[in-house]
Design a protein that fits this description.
The complex is a heterodimer of chains A (113) and B (116). Chain A is mainly β. Chain A is built from no helices and 12 strands. In chain A, the strands form 3 sheets. In chain A, strands 2, 5, 6, 10, 11 and 12 form a 6-stranded mixed beta sheet that branches. A 4-stranded antiparallel beta sheet of chain A has the order 3-9-8-7, with no helix packed on it. A two-stranded antiparallel sheet of chain A has the order 1-4. Classes of the chains: A mainly beta (113), B mainly beta (116).
Chain lengths: 113, 116
């Protein structure tokens, strides 16, 4: 069975601080895909990134960066110089086949001005 | 439309009544998923449609839940004899191709169901 754990239920930081959201996953699949989604207060989930299990290169997109470590089954997400607009619930998800994704319970990120 | 459209956005019903939730995926998307998001919880997979294949119903929590997808496009999720624990936001997502081909999921804004 697949499982995604986001141990941080809520994080609160002051604007401009860096913040890392943790994600640990479990799967028996040898090929799988990892995702991060953002859910702003409006409710609609927004895709941020997909990472294939065979590609361990870390990725940076503007203020966002992702650290994929297969050895520790982790796919952590860092926001540099956080902004109030980053406030949202962030979900890590795992997909290994044709089924829907397995989502973590989400981390509620609060950026205080 | 440009995105995944769900209706109604909000539904309040009495315990024991049936409800239907509708999802209109992005045009051309072959895969369609239903998820349930309860307060403070992650997203729970319910059912998956891929093209004209038989749906994967492995996530449906009970036989009161059913879903269909007509003509490979619009989908309806039906909950019969609703219970208070069915209260949640029901999210629909579609993708251009199955996730095995690394398709990205596009989500609707959800249908918030409240069972009194």
């Amino acid at each position: 069975a697949q499982k995604v754990t986001q141990a941080q239920t809520e994080i609160s930081v002051v604007e401009k601080e860096d913040v890392t959201l943790d994600c640990v996953y479990e799967t028996r699949d040898t090929t799988y895909y990892l995702f991060w989604y953002k859910q702003p207060p409006s409710g609609e989930l927004v895709f941020l990134i997909r990472r294939n299990s065979f590609d361990e290169q870390n990725e940076i997109s503007g203020r966002y960066s992702w650290n994929f470590q297969k050895s520790t089954s982790s796919f952590n997400f860092t926001i540099t110089a956080s902004q109030v607009v980053d406030s949202a619930v962030y979900f890590c998800a795992l997909g290994g086949g044709a089924d829907g994704l397995t989502f973590g319970k989400g981390t509620h990120l609060i950026i205080q001005p | 439309g440009a995105g995944v459209s769900q209706s109604p956005s909000n539904k309040v019903t009495e315990k024991g009544k049936d409800v239907e939730l509708r999802c209109d995926p992005i045009s051309g998307h072959t895969a369609l998923y239903w998820y349930r998001q309860s307060l403070g919880q992650g997203l729970e997979f319910l059912i998956y449609f891929q093209g004209n294949s038989a749906p994967d119903k492995s996530g449906l929590p009970s036989d009161r839940f059913s879903a269909e997808r007509t003509g490979g496009s619009v989908s309806t999720l039906t909950i019969q004899r609703t219970q208070q624990e069915d209260s949640a936001v029901y999210l629909c997502a579609s993708s251009l191709m199955p996730l095995t081909n690394t398709g990205e999921l596009f989500f609707g804004e959800g249908s918030r169901l409240t069972v009194l």
